[in-house]
Design goal:
This protein has 278 residues and is of the alpha/beta class. The protein has a single domain, classed as P-loop containing nucleotide triphosphate hydrolases (Rossmann fold), CATH 3.40.50. Helix content is 50%, strand content 7%. Strands 2-3-1-4-5 form a 5-stranded parallel β-sheet, with helices on one face. The longest helix has 18 residues.
Length: 278
């Protein structure tokens, strides 16, 4: 005999715009978590960790991000409009964990719209992050997504012939985005609703992540794995003078590095990155 609750769940699957009240009864959430790390910081792995036991997605409805993010980042999409969009999106997806780097730019609206939601910021040191992003850009050439120009475009001049010859963005453009993304999260999310985890420590942070959202580590360990690994490494930073890299880190990233370093989760983590950190 089919349980009445299951009938309701099956019905809701065909009616994604059903009221949040009905969904909360038929499909209660164990928690509501947003993974809002920058590109190449492990958001796909975050979704996989939760996906074994909970409703979790990585970059769900990605085409919508490409449509609305330019206006959001330019300030043309205010918080009222953003909250309405997020509310409709949530009614369609009804996830317990959504991990996607564009969500960082909606963090303040998410905080206001979903007062019970929590946020997981995955962070990589500047050096390993930059190497990983450039590897991805070289392995998957443009135009794969217009978010690249949105993130890394701007009035930056090339100081590195290496990046210029490869047809990639200037060093300052990449590091400026690292700082802006992480600063946006720190500015938007209350400290008690935010957990920061170094990408390299993600697979060893199951227990604190589970405690943060209020579940058991056993439910997350089943999904523990590193996804979206780089297919080919180009070691571009090995060909860029270390002094130039450090100068631009100090210029663009130092204030955010100092803010992140005050987080207890990052007390022993090298946020600049040394060659051995790769």
């Amino acid at each position: 005999m089919v349980e009445p609750k299951q009938i309701l769940v099956d019905y809701l699957a065909t009616r994604p715009r059903a009221s949040r009240l009905v969904r909360s009864v038929a499909q209660p959430r164990a928690f509501q978590l947003y993974g809002i790390g920058a590109p190449k910081t492990g958001t796909k792995s975050v979704a996989a960790i939760f996906g074994a036991s909970f409703r979790a997605r990585h970059e769900a409805r990605y085409a919508e991000f490409r449509r609305v993010l330019p206006a959001r980042m330019a300030g043309a999409m205010g918080n009222d409009e953003a909250r309405n969009w997020l509310r409709q999106r949530d009614a369609l997806l009804w996830l317990e964990c959504e991990a996607a780097h564009p969500l960082a730019w909606f963090a303040d609206a998410l905080v206001a719209e979903f007062p019970e939601a929590r946020f997981l910021l995955t962070v990589r040191d500047c050096r390993s992050w930059l190497n990983s992003v450039v590897d991805q850009h070289l392995n998957v050439p443009r135009p794969r997504t217009n978010l690249r120009d949105l993130y890394y475009g701007g009035d930056f001049e090339h100081e590195s012939e290496v990046l210029a010859d490869l047809g990639e963005y200037p060093l300052a453009a990449y590091l400026s985005y690292w700082a802006r993304h992480n600063a946006k999260v720190l500015d938007s999310v209350p400290a008690d609703r935010l957990l920061v985890v170094p990408t390299q420590h993600l697979s060893h942070s199951i227990e604190p992540i589970a405690e943060f959202v209020g579940t058991t580590a056993e439910k997350l360990r089943a999904g523990k794995r590193h996804l979206h690994k780089t297919r080919r490494r180009h070691a571009v930073l090995d060909r860029i003078p270390r002094a130039l890299f450090l100068t631009r880190v100090e210029q663009y990233c130092r204030p955010v590095i100092d803010r992140l370093a005050r987080r207890p989760e990052l007390a022993e983590y090298d946020l600049v990155g040394t060659p051995s950190a790769l």
